[in-house]
Sequence to fold (392 residues):
Amino acid sequence: MSSTSPQKHVVVIGGGILGASTAFHLTSGGAKVTLVTAGTLANGASSRSIAWLNSSGARSAEYHYLRLLAIDRYRTWSAHHPESRGYIRFNGAMKWAAPGKTFRDTYAAERSRGYESLWVERANVAAIAPDVNAEAVAEEGAIFNPGEGWVNMPDFIPALVAEAVAKGAEVIENAGDVRVNVQDGASVGVILGNGTQVSADEVVLATGGDVPAQLAALGVTVLDRTPAAFVLITDPVDAEVKTVLNTPRVAVRPTPDGRLVLDSDWAEQTVVIEDDGSFSVPQESVQGLLDEASKVLAGNPRLTAHHVGAGLKPIPGDGLPVVGPIPQIPGLYTIFSHSGATLGLILGELLAEEILTGTPSPVLKSFRPDRFGSTDGAPEAVGTGAWEPVKQ
Ligand SMILES: Cc1cc2nc3c(=O)[nH]c(=O)nc-3n(C[C@H](O)[C@H](O)[C@H](O)COP(=O)(O)OP(=O)(O)OC[C@H]3O[C@@H](n4cnc5c(N)ncnc54)[C@H](O)[C@@H]3O)c2cc1C
Fold:
């Protein structure tokens, strides 16, 4: 990406994957960038994510295309950054249907759009994914997607930001509750938690699950279905796990240091939001996830909990990314998405290019903030069909 325009100063609010990626790409494209974030880098949803890199299941053509670009960017990053290969891995993922359901349609949908998808009979599970307990797989079999993988964002985000800093970006951590400074209807910069004003030509709001409320405070509606969620990180496991697993009762992926990250929809629903706004997770959910994960792994390894990471899981109202300028407030942009691990590199790149060149990306056409219109209705259709609620 290159720009011939004079150097812009852009403030990016939010040190998760979407803010870090936008800051990195803006800096690479020649902008002066200040990344400000409430606490430390990667302290939000990006630190507690399964972070499965995928375009699994049924998607609209536009969304599938975006996700394929997204995965491709990780492959390129990995090819050019050998040191990242410990925390960006493409060892494939396996999924199977719950009792009474079938994944045959999902398999057909994936094959029909050219996505790499293999049907694996139970008898062949050990050959394809020796880390999986074949007996736990659905009777009909499973889908294996050899091109899928995972990223460990607590490793990746600091690396991305370090590259941005090496190219001149400034990072302000522990900035508290940062607000967009709107004067005469336009964004002129940000106000840090301690009241310090930082002026900017452009501001990017990348505060994860806080985006809808921050925009609402500025009179802008972005429909939101952000739930509370959690992941469980295990102690190091005495088993070699490489495959990302999405099973009816648990999702599993390895970490660079030999642990597992676990989550599941049923467990997510047990998170309690306390009166003081903190999140707590019942012990039964922790033990339940450990038990379910042990069942789906070859040899049923004994698993113990290291820690739980609970908090918001950013999800726009229609499940699709929300990226681009806020038309009501010149100078303000947002980037807010589910599947932000998968989409992190590409969305940051496309948004940065729009900011630097002023040219809207056709790839983002279906994912604009203004699709939500007024507050009193459902979101407008964006050419995608129903949102796929299955997984990340
Ligand atoms: C349990 C779980 C499982 C997931 N699984 C997957 C998956 O398998 N695949 C996938 O692709 N995606 C997955 N996701 C989604 C993905 O992790 C998120 O979409 C992504 O991490 C969001 O990144 P973000 O930068 O938007 O937000 P965050 O990582 O939350 O970062 C936002 C940052 O903004 C800061 N901030 C917030 N408010 C303010 C403020 N007022 N002032 C200053 N700073 C502020 C926060 O401190 C935080 O650092 C999962 C998410 C969860 C929670």
Summary: Residues 375-391 have pLDDT under 50 and may be disordered. Residues 13-19, 37-39, 43-46, 48-52, 175, 177-178, 206-208, 210, 229, 231, 263, 313-314, 337-342, 392 surround flavin-adenine dinucleotide (CB under 6 Å).
